[in-house]
Amino acid sequence: MIDWKVEAVYLLRILVAAALGFIIGVERKMRYKEAGMKTHALVACGAALMTLIGKYGFAATGDGSRVAAQVVTGIGFLGAGIIMYRRDSLRGVTTAAGIWATAGVGMASGAGMYILAVGAAFLIVFLQFLLHLPISFFKTKLFFIYRIKFVCADNENEMIKEIFGVKSYSRVNYYSTDNGVSASAEISTNKIISDDDIKKIVFENSFITSIERVYHLDG
Prior knowledge:
Blueprint: H1 4-30, H2 37-57, H3 64-82, E1 84-86, E2 89-91, H4 93-110, H5 114-130, E3 141-152, H6 156-164, E4 171-177, E5 180-189, H7 195-204, E6 208-218
Antiparallel strand pairs: 1-2, 3-5, 3-6, 4-5
Helix pairs in contact: 1-2, 1-4, 1-5, 2-3, 2-4, 3-4, 4-5
């Protein structure tokens, strides 16, 4: 026989989870992130539902904790799908971490731990706002990788290091060509070199055949 009062309590937990997920998602949507209100609300709602099923649906078999554990694993796969790696630039890590934390909020709500769920949700939103304040310590560090292809003849290695203001290469490969030995080197630096300056470097240094700039985000 269905106990409607108990079922109503379960439904309330799911609704609270969805509301908290929605609140977290609002902040993400305001920053035009990959996952917004719908995603966070659904993640929290689903996590709460699975927690309820595990806790009460399989209570007799003693397998309830396994269902909750699989929620964490499943959210991990969802987060991995959000993370993008393009041209050596890693993006979406913070959003993926937020999705994972939102699932925890949903699980807490599903377990009936309302104070913990609400407190954690607002802590997540608070941290997102705090870490986006215009404070240098909180800012994402932007640095660059410059890929330089050049012909080796004399002391080109030292000349390139001097041009870019670095002490060593991040990576370098040497290979044989019809004109002798050539190299492809990578340099990591926070120094911003404009397109005009890159053109000037290539024009003034005939041994350099190409320079490619890649953006990198850290943090």
